[in-house]
Design a protein that fits this description.
Two copies of one chain form a homodimer. The first copy, chain A, is α/β, with parallel strands linked by helices. Chain A is built from 19 helices and 25 strands. Chain A folds into two domains: about 220 residues, Glutaconate Coenzyme A-transferase (3-Layer(aba) Sandwich); about 260 residues, Glutaconate Coenzyme A-transferase (3-Layer(aba) Sandwich).
Chain lengths: ~500, ~500
């Protein structure tokens, strides 16, 4: 497989160049829209070349930074490399890189944490400023100049449409057989010209398999042959399996009550080990003909498809462990019939999430006794990764689960607290909380009713009496709709900052 | 106008009865779905009769309560009367009654505060339990049994469809000429059977003018001749006018920048004096051919229509002062061509709010320096009214404004605080904050950038140095993404609870 096999648009051959030469075309101080979603489909060579250029320029007394917009998280070659050289002024809408996180939390980098369904439209509306250049990984270029997307679609359509200049990174490591696995919808518009999105089934094709780009804007084509960051999943542990068990029992109960169809509704699953365990639990569960409508397809969902339990999945990215990736490559013709990768404005679109009636399952950092959820901040101030698509799904879903082990840091931290130190999902958007201790069904309850259910069902036994004590005393303290003792509400977090533990 | 003129379905004549007899048909302990949205279109006679029955039963040693579901807020005859006799077990999804509020905040009544766009579907999904009876105000009944809606549509379609029994309150005070002003969409469904909602313009008709009901379920028809609670608006004061001025300047700026069409986009306006002042400001502003897509149509929007500045408005309720109501009645043929009242699942639907690109303007109780908004709770614990539709609009809008005077209680309370005591709209959903001091455009900013803009532009000068001091010290204290000092973050609220003032 040579680069020429992948770049079949003749006009682009003269624009093939090194990553260094391409990185030199990125304007200092500019806004750069890069591909990449959950460690998939991000450019690999160009960001590293850009980082080297930034470092050299700084050494020469000409420091500069760029602002980096992506789909979601990327990998050390992008976020890590650019953060390492202090090359990022503003990062949006999501990241999960340790170097990046450190720069954000030490005040050296700005981060705008956005709902993933908002990003493309805010760029279109002009709310984020001008997009100077797009740097997009593709798996190939057709003879007519259209682009075959790679392992993530993310915001690529929007970046290609909006950017003044486009740099393509052609990754010959991505199998050609992914051609046909994408569905790029070109029917979006800016108000007042919007139309209904014509999708009523999760696996319905509404667009075309290729990305369009104005060839005149393409200033560079760079070759890469390097795999995505592989996600490592821990084998489901006891805690994850207990959480998965509670969810599956609950889903069965809802089917029996007539509140869910027998084949459930399309599943969305957030990132991480717990989410993966829930999907693994469905492998041996009673449900058939499942469908997925999610943002990132990970090992657990791939296994469900392989097993036949899940008939199809829609996502914006595919992010696998090396073992799952080998299976994906070996059986790619099978998977291509069952997987569609779409722009994230479609995979996460409120209109579609509500219409299709998604069952949303997302991880959280902590919940408070009244059902507010913190998905992003450690101890109120430090950013973990970002809200990602959790709000797109939770707000508009049919059922919204938030899951976490009941304790963290070996039991030092309770994930159920008197008051969240930061709120990403309000009481209005949280229906069901699950820990290994149990499941709290909050639908239709008042805050005081929720508190008792959450304390009884979800809190760890070590923290349960402390939460009950807080709740009891708060009910004697003041306003009784959402009883709080404000001087104590955040004291668990304060104690943790002071001592490393929420335990008294 | 006799009742017979209004009840033209012959079979119902035998079911005409007194409010007392109808109230006796409501099952003790049941769930009752009542009409009513923002003090419009609520049943008047039956809830008062029910309250008398509850009081009598309690006196006889047979206490009972009901759970009351509505569209949104009602009036003293409904929420006030039932709360006064401790007759409400659970209230949802919104209220603004002083007696009701007192019962909620003293722990004597449960309240489930919901997004208004979620209510109908959660009832359909079975998440709220069985609906025993619907009590719905209508202006008349057609010869074929269909119902002519009154001044609010709210959740009436859903209550009529779902309830085991239906009680109709026919209000002969509502002018017959409102017939034709409603658009009831019967195309909704439960997943997986949902289709796109076929609306692309705010004033587009997608349904039919009448409500359907299974005549066999109608157990009582009761006559009323009593007007809605009239909303009193204060004449716009200096503070409201300054807020309105900032918003109008900003909208003009956005038009000049090409980020808004010259005729703007459909306007949503929350309830209250400030919202009304903004609309009044548009009366003399530079914009023409405005449209409204909102939940409640109040005086300000009616005046915009009358003036010709606004060509049409869509809402779920019409709630006017007595002066505006007289004008509405006098010119009802004019207004009927320009106003459509729809079910609240349509007026507030995320799909439509996003598609149409609404400019959302909602009031708030407080915002924190990072752009989180509290719309519901006083000092973290006491419920004011509820979130209403503010989240439906803010999350999905094109532009989302939150407005408040910079101080409350004669300057004792700052409406800009270090940390919100409750969060209803997260940093991800808040674009623009406005006080009489100025306007903070938060689009695309990081939390630290937002803090400086909010302190500089929105805080009252008396509190500005205190906020700056907190922000400066928090930036030296710990995590730098959203700098906080947790032991101080809620201290302003604690001080206010202790002393009645946030001032040190």
């Amino acid at each position: 497989m040579t680069l020429a096999d992948r770049v079949r648009y003749a006009d682009f051959h003269s624009r093939i160049m090194s990553a260094e030469d391409a990185a030199a075309l990125i304007p200092a101080g500019g806004n750069v829209g890069m591909s990449g979603f959950t460690g998939a489909g991000y450019p690999k060579a160009i960001p590293q070349a850009l980082a080297r250029r930034i470092e050299a320029e700084r050494a020469a007394g000409r420091p500069f930074r760029v602002s980096v917009w992506t789909g979601a998280s990327t990998a050390p070659e992008l976020d890590g490399a650019l953060a390492q050289v202090d090359g990022i002024e503003m990062r949006l809408p999501f990241q999960s890189d340790p170097v990046c996180r450190d720069k954000i939390n030490t005040g050296q980098m700005h981060f705008s944490d956005m709902h993933l369904s908002h990003v493309a439209q805010h760029a279109w509306f002009g709310f984020l400023g001008r997009l100077d250049v797009a740097v997009v990984e593709v798996l190939g270029i057709l003879p007519d100049g259209r682009l075959i997307p790679s392992t993530a679609v993310g915001n690529n359509k929007t970046w290609l449409d909006l950017a003044d200049k486009v740099i393509l990174e052609v990754n010959t490591q991505v199998p050609e057989q992914m051609d046909g696995m994408h569905d790029i919808y070109y029917g979006t518009a800016v108000p007042p010209h919007r139309k209904p999105i014509p999708m009523t089934q999760p696996h319905e094709r509404i667009g075309e398999p290729y990305l369009r780009v104005d060839p005149a804007k393409v200033v560079a084509v760079v070759a890469t042959h390097q795999g995505d960051r592989n996600t490592r999943f821990a084998a489901p542990d006891a805690v994850s399996n207990q959480i998965a068990g509670h969810i599956i029992d609950f889903l069965q109960h809802e089917v029996r009550q007539g509140r869910l169809p027998r084949d459930l509704l399309p599943l969305q699953s957030g990132v991480g080990n717990v989410a993966n365990a829930v999907l693994a639990g469905l492998l041996t569960g009673p449900f058939e003909n499942l469908t997925g409508f999610t943002e990132v397809l990970q090992d657990g969902m791939l296994e469900l498809i392989k097993s036949g339990k899940m008939v199809s999945a829609s996502a914006t990215a595919i992010s696998l462990s090396s073992a799952a990736l080998a299976d994906f490559h070996a059986n790619i013709d099978f998977y291509r019939e069952r997987i569609l990768l779409r722009p994230q404005e479609i995979s996460n679109h409120p209109e579609l999430v509500r219409r299709l009636g998604i069952i949303a399952m997302n991880a959280m950092i902590e919940a408070d006794i009244y059902g507010n959820v913190n998905s992003t901040h450690l101890m109120g101030s430090s950013m973990m990764n970002g809200i990602g698509g959790s709000g797109d799904f939770a707000r508009n879903s049919y059922l919204s689960f938030f899951v976490t082990p009941s304790v963290a840091k070996g039991g030092a931290i309770s994930c159920i607290v008197p008051m969240c130190s930061h709120v990403d999902h309000t009481e209005h958007d949280v229906q069901i909380l699950v820990t290994e201790q149990g499941l709290a069904d909050l639908r239709g309850l008042s805050p005081r009713q929720r508190a008792q259910v959450i304390i009884d069902r979800c809190a760890h036994p070590d923290f349960r009496p402390l939460l009950q004590d807080y709740f009891d005393r708060a009910q004697r303290a003041g306003g009784q709709h959402t009883p709080h003792i404000l001087g104590e509400a955040l004291s668990w977090h304060q104690r943790c900052l002071a001592t490393g533990s929420m335990r008294p």
